Amino acid sequence: MLVKADVSFIENQSLEVILEKLDEAYKRLLPYYQATRG
Predict the structure, then answer these.
(1) How far apart are CA 19 and CA 25, in angstroms?
(2) Tell me: the pLDDT tens digits for 1-38?
(3) For the chain, what are the domain ranges?
(4) Does the pTM of the predicted model rise above 0.85?
């Protein structure tokens, strides 16, 4: 049920918005990733 809600939420978003969110998440996670890699 939750998955269905997530899917329809994603389908209602424009591709631009999704890519923007992915880019933000990437920028947030990159320093942590680099720190764990040493």
Answers:
(1) 10
(2) 566 767 676 666 788 888 899 999 999 998 888 898 87
(3) 2-37
(4) no
